[in-house]
Design a protein that fits this description.
Helix content: 10-25%
Radius of gyration: 16 Å
Strand content: over 45%
Number of strands: 8
Distance between the termini: 35 Å
Order of helices and strands: HEEEEEEEE
Length: about 110
């Protein structure tokens, strides 16, 4: 009985892989001190909020988790048209790639 309870408890406490992205991230680049990314869940929907990348605007986009590629995908809009973007994790760094450019962020809170 204890083995069954332990198995059920560990299965229930396992967070989905996309939850690793949840948190607040700050640009890890000289001269881009104010660029912040907040990733959160609104119910089941993942939301990506970008602050300070363009004229201190706040932009928010829905994102989806690609299980095969293990990254977030969203449409980076609000400027001139929408561009696809991906966010992925590597060694505690969040990298966002859009239109061939990549910007790295470090976690500042969960």
């Amino acid at each position: 009985m204890a083995v069954v309870f332990s198995a059920v408890l560990s299965a229930c406490s396992t967070a989905p892989p996309e939850d690793e992205f949840i948190g607040t991230w700050k640009a890890d680049l000289e001269g881009v001190d104010s660029a912040i990314v907040e990733i959160r869940k609104d119910g089941e929907q993942i939301m990506v909020k970008l602050k300070g990348l363009r004229n201190s605007q706040e932009l928010e986009f829905p994102a989806t988790y690609n299980k095969e590629a293990k990254h977030l995908e969203f449409q980076f809009g609000g400027f001139i048209g929408d561009k696809p973007a991906t966010a992925y994790l590597k060694n505690d760094t969040l990298s966002i790639n859009s239109d061939g450019a990549t910007l790295d962020f470090r976690r500042i809170s969960n």
